[in-house]
Write a structure and sequence with these properties.
The complex is a heterodimer of chains A (585) and B (438).
Chain A: E1 3-10, E2 13-18, E3 26-32, E4 35-45, E5 48-53, E6 65-72, E7 74-77, E8 85-87, E9 116-120, E10 127-128, E11 133-139, E12 142-147, E13 156-161, E14 165-167, E15 174-177, E16 183-186, E17 190-193, H1 216-221, E18 229-233, H2 240-250, E19 255-261, H3 265-274, E20 291-296, H4 303-320, E21 325-331, H5 333-346, H6 360-369, E22 372-375, E23 381-390, H7 400-408, E24 411-412, H8 417-421, E25 434-435, H9 441-450, H10 455-479, H11 486-503, H12 517-531, H13 540-559, H14 565-581
Parallel strand pairs in A: 8-20, 18-23, 18-24, 19-20, 19-21, 21-23
Antiparallel strand pairs in A: 1-2, 1-6, 2-5, 3-4, 3-6, 4-5, 7-17, 9-11, 9-14, 10-13, 11-12, 13-15, 15-16, 22-23, 24-25
Helix pairs in contact in A: 4-5, 6-7, 10-11, 10-12, 11-12, 11-13, 13-14
Chain B: E1 8-9, E2 12-15, E3 19-23, E4 32-35, E5 38-46, E6 49-54, E7 67-69, E8 75-78, E9 86-87, E10 103-106, E11 123-124, H1 129-132, E12 137-138, E13 142-147, H2 153-163, E14 168-176, H3 178-190, E15 197-203, H4 214-228, E16 232-238, H5 240-253, H6 267-275, E17 279-280, E18 286-294, H7 303-311, E19 314-321, E20 326-329, E21 335-336, H8 351-373, H9 380-397, H10 405-419, H11 429-435
Helix pairs in contact in B: 2-3, 6-7, 8-9, 8-10, 9-10
The chains are: A alpha+beta (585), B alpha/beta (438).
Chain lengths: 585, 438
């Protein structure tokens, strides 16, 4: 392996002199009086290699030795990743000692001694290649496939697969033979360079299946699909984190990977504390059992922040290759972009817009491009749905990270300060947000079959009414309540009804927090029926009082268990109220 | 200051306003040095050329200055003797007392492993209902006041600190005026709280770059009491905008490309490193940080408040309410992100809904006021909302209110029934039935 010596230090950028080959993005360890500091090559200039250190460089001196590793940053993959809390470089945080993080603690993400119940899938004589399924183990009730390592590029023939039984991750479970007759022993562990996409699938068709999140302003208004991409930009205090947590708790996915990238440590602690207690609304098992957390909080080393999102994506791709539905959440991609900016700045590169590196748009689009719904080579399907949050500086959406993300993500959930100030949560702006999937004929076909034929037309009707309501509210602001006809007030209040009953949702109420899709259909039908009903009022104050009462009843319904006695009683009350003002023609 | 075995370097190769470079070997990154007796820190090493940032500035430094490397990063001696003492940014006493003894610890140490943190769950009662009712604070939280320089944030911070029942209160002053420093000193000593106070002070009279050491000094002391002694520590940092200005000065003098508002590109990480020291530790100790970020003309999109907002767990805004002529805690822009960990759990069940309903009605009043200002007629509801808003400001939001949370909730229910009908407050029926004042 190539060795070098430290020549210069500027914060976490270290210049190393070498006289043997090194590769861009190669991993190196600096020996600081016996403590190994992990680093990555980011630039080479003659004999000088620039490396970014994933740790604090305090005490580092010129002349200290550096060992290059001959490979890029890799994630260790295998059974046992679920429930793990990893740092950005995929080291197990639970295995580290002490209350404080010490430099140079690189703990493996997998447990060497744990036994897994293995069942063979492939048999002797089968032709296999990278990512072919050889067998499976039960990992928290998920069929975790043991696959031919993704780094093996040839065609192989299976010589033997071990029989059903309990094995550890490093025991050989299969022997495969390449075309030269060389035997390869396969165990359950494999490594993959995180910055390289895993493309071991047949095709990547357009996604179409609804990914249910239980959040009405997403599922009903701007749905995201399995294998889709979305992003949530929002100034601080607009409820980004609450929304993101709600999605990761409630989404109907097999595996949830959360990349806490440069955000608050207490938010990760909230996940650590709550997920082992909360139940997955779809399976009834504990949420933590399907979750993997990659945590590089804002006070953890900056250079590892960039790595953390790639680590999370690689873990997602690994589970997708097993034919599973993966949801990947990254909070926040802006912090990742800022980490790139800090490094680019230290390397004295010419800056792009807002001092971000020039290639920021390519980096973002390549990353979003790794998500998607795929058909595997064996005919099974898997998906990675990716939702990233963006923290725009000053809440201004005209900044490079937001703009470049908007070009690639298909769903846009704009969090609005004004809605948040008025406590209309989730503060997703219903007018500016969109889901491109609503326009996909594949999605339309799916939704008419699975939910109802008139679903999309009702959703579009609702969107039009929201827009009309907003226009009227602006007119009222200019002309005054008396300045517009009473019918305008009625239209306005109908849009308020949609806002209060469908869009607003109490993430901290046990019942209201999650709305299953059947219930969303019920609510949408109910609200649209009311909106399409003609009402007659003498003046606008009567209309306001009437609709406020109606909204109050509908909200009581949202707080009640679906189709319980209480729920039905409120519904009867609502029907009675509608009769009093319904204009019969 | 030089000890017998220390090597003295005198080959200065470059001097700028804040830094100087010297030819030297075997120097560690971040290490402290003295240049003509002034304290300095290593910020860059290329081969044998070491760049030092001189905290006091480089005025009068000659090219043959004596540079002595101290072989350690900035550090603080920690022990119980810190209690009741006042220090400067270097951790040297400014109260005339002796230098405290204790274990020497490097400041700006490593961060807490997130899996070792506990979820904050203990309410900090301040008696100010704009905080306790709407933006409840929790131990282990970090939250700043976003305030214009003329607002009374120092008074509110001092009140909060004294009522918060903390075992230790550590004040880190950065660019604080001498008058404000004396104010804190008086308030704390009048309250008989001096034995649990520790102050690290950089006033406007001290060199600006020195203040970069203050938060790390304060937090190293805080970690000693919270981790070693399992105490509840409250850290007050005022003012983080002055701290950021010092960061910008240094980054500018090191020829770094500035990002938004002339601030260094690393501002987010720099601030996060400080604020994330707030934590609830596994053995019962905690560090809570209440800071001040002064705004210029109320602009929260400026890089300092903006980055701060993304780091801290909420923010508190003060506002002068002209309808009652008092300063209130603004219910719209203020937010405590950890409030749901205690509201309705450590406080009465109706707390979350009462808070939301009151703020929503207050927003209705704001709309009504806009109508009024635009010359439109008000409806009966608008008028009632305005009356409610006035009472709400007077009896709850004003910073001179001192109530416990049950009294705050009862007062709010009283205002609801005085001004509204039950269906207008949009709350869960069971709560209305139980608490509505008939």
């Amino acid at each position: 392996m190539t060795k070098g010596k430290v020549k210069g230090i500027i914060s976490n950028l270290v210049i190393v002199e070498v006289d043997a080959p090194v590769a861009q993005n190669e991993i190196a360890y600096i020996n600081l009086d016996g403590v190994k500091l992990m680093a990555e090559v980011i630039k080479v200039e003659g004999k000088n290699v620039y490396i970014q250190v994933f740790e604090s460089t305090r005490g580092l001196k010129v002349g200290m030795e550096v060992d290059f590793q001959g490979h890029m940053l890799e994630a260790m993959l295998g059974p046992g990743l679920l429930e793990k809390k990893l740092d950005g470089l995929s080291h197990d945080l639970d295995k580290m000692e002490g209350v404080f993080l010490k430099r140079g603690q690189y703990t493996p993400s997998l447990d060497e001694k744990r036994l897994w119940k293995f069942k063979p899938i492939a048999k002797a004589g089968d032709k296999v290649s990278a990512a072919s399924w050889l067998g499976e183990v039960d990992e928290n009730y998920q069929p975790h496939k043991i696959m031919v390592p993704f780094t093996m590029t040839e065609e192989y023939t299976v010589k033997s697969v071990i029989s059903e039984g309990e094995y550890t991750v490093y025991q050989t479970i299969a022997i495969i033979v390449d075309k030269n007759g060389k035997e390869h022993e396969i165990n359950m562990v494999q490594k993959w360079p995180v910055k390289v996409p895993m493309t071991h699938y047949k095709e990547k068709p357009r996604p179409y299946r609804l990914l249910e999140t239980g959040v009405r302003s997403i599922d009903t208004l701007n749905p995201i699909v399995e294998g889709g991409t979305g992003f949530i930009p929002g100034a601080f205090g607009t409820g980004k984190t609450v929304l993101q947590h709600a999605i990761s708790k409630q989404a109907e996915a097999d595996i949830v990977v959360i990349a806490a990238c440069g955000e608050r440590a207490n938010e990760v602690v909230e996940i650590f504390t709550e997920f082992p207690e909360l139940e997955d609304p779809h399976t009834g098992r504990k949420l933590i059992e399907r979750t993997i957390i990659v945590a590089n909080t804002s006070n953890m080393p900056v250079a590892a922040r960039e790595a953390s999102v790639y680590t999370a994506m690689t873990i997602g791709e690994y589970y997708r290759a097993m034919g599973l539905k993966v949801l990947l959440m990254a909070d926040s991609t802006s912090r990742w972009a800022q980490a790139l900016r800090e490094m680019s700045n230290r390397m004295e590169e010419l800056p792009g817009p807002d001092a971000f590196p020039m290639d920021i748009s390519a980096i973002i689009s390549n990353f979003y491009g790794r998500a998607g719904h795929v058909k595997l080579n064996n005919g099974h399907e898997g998906s990675i749905t990716f939702i990233g949050t963006v923290s725009p500086a000053g809440g201004n959406l005209k900044e490079p990270v937001t703009e470049n993300t908007k070009k690639v993500a298909r769903c846009f959930y704009a969090l609005e300060q004004d809605r948040a100030d008025r406590k209309r949560y989730p503060a997703i702006n219903p007018i500016e947000s969109y889901s491109k999937y609503l326009e996909y004929p594949e999605f339309e076909e799916f939704i008419s079959k699975e939910i109802s034929e008139d679903w999309t037309s009702k959703v579009n009707d609702m969107k039009t009414r929201l827009l009309r309501g907003k226009e009227i509210s602006e007119q009222i602001n200019i002309l005054g309540d008396d300045g517009v006809p009473t019918e305008y007030h009625i239209t306005f209040w109908k849009s308020e009804l949609i806002d209060f009953v469908i869009l607003q949702q109490d993430a901290f109420d046990d019942i209201d927090a999650v709305t299953p899709i059947e219930r969303q259909k019920y609510i949408l039908d109910m609200v649209i029926d009311i909106c399409r009903t003609d009402f007659q009022f003498d003046n606008f104050t009567d209309a306001a009082d009437y609709f406020k009462e109606m909204i109050n009843i509908c909200r009581q319904m949202n707080y009640s268990e679906f189709k319980s006695d209480k729920f039905n009683a409120h519904r009867a009350e609502l029907d009675k109220l509608i009769k009093t003002k319904h204009q019969e023609n | 200051m030089a000890k017998a075995f220390q090597k003295i370097y005198t080959q200065i190769t470059q001097i700028t306003k804040a830094t100087c470079s010297v030819k030297a070997t075997n120097v560690g990154y971040d290490e402290l040095a003295t240049v003509e007796g002034r304290l300095a820190q290593v910020v860059k090493i290329i081969d044998d050329e070491v760049t030092l940032q001189i905290f006091e500035g480089t005025e009068g430094i000659p090219t043959n200055a004596e540079v002595i490397f101290l072989g350690k990063a900035p550090s603080l001696k920690v022990s119980d003797q810190l209690a009741g003492r006042f220090f400067n940014a270097y951790g040297n006493p400014i109260d005339g007392g002796p230098i405290p003894e204790g274990e020497e610890r490097q400041i700006g140490g490593p961060s807490v492993n997130p899996v070792r943190r506990k979820q904050p769950s203990e309410l900090i009662a301040t008696g100010i209902s704009g905080i306790d009712l709407n933006n409840t604070l929790v131990t282990g939280q970090k939250i700043p006041f976003f305030a214009d320089p003329d607002q009374p944030f120092n008074q509110v911070m001092a009140t909060v600190a004294l009522r918060a029942k903390a075992d230790k209160i550590i004040l880190g002053g950065m660019g604080m005026t001498n008058d404000d420093y004396l104010y804190y000193k008086n308030v704390f000593s009048n309250a008989g709280a001096l034995d649990r106070i520790i102050i690290f002070m950089n006033t406007t009279e001290d060199p600006a770059v020195e203040r970069l050491l203050v938060p790390d000094m304060a937090l190293t002391a805080a970690e000693y009491f919270a981790v070693d002694k399992n105490e509840k520590v409250l850290v007050l940092l005022s003012d983080m905008t002055s701290y950021s200005d010092a960061l910008a000065i240094v980054s500018n003098r090191m020829d770094q490309i500035p990002s938004k508002d002339s601030m260094p590109g690393s501002l987010y990480s720099d601030l996060a490193k400080i604020y994330e020291k707030a934590a609830q530790f596994p053995d019962g100790g905690s560090i809570t940080i209440i800071a001040v970020t002064t705004l210029s003309g109320g602009d929260i999109t400026h890089a300092v408040p903006d980055n701060t907002g993304y780091i801290t767990e909420g923010q508190l805004f003060l506002r002068h309410d002209t309808t009652i002529g008092k300063v209130i805690v603004d219910p719209f822009r203020s937010l405590s992100r950890l409030k749901q960990l205690v509201q309705g759990k450590k406080t009465r069940e109706d707390h979350p809904q009462v808070m939301n309903a009151a703020v929503r009605l207050y927003a209705d009043a704001a709309n009504a006021r806009t109508k009024l200002e635009n010359g439109f007629d008000l409806t009966d509801y608008d008028q009632r909302a305005l009356d409610f808003a006035k009472d709400y400001s007077e009896y709850l939001l004003a910073i001179d209110v001192n109530l416990d949370t049950v009294e705050m909730l009862d007062t709010t229910w009283g205002l609801f029934s005085k001004h509204f009908r039950p269906q207008e407050v949009n709350m869960r029926m069971e709560l209305v039935e139980r608490y509505w004042k008939k």
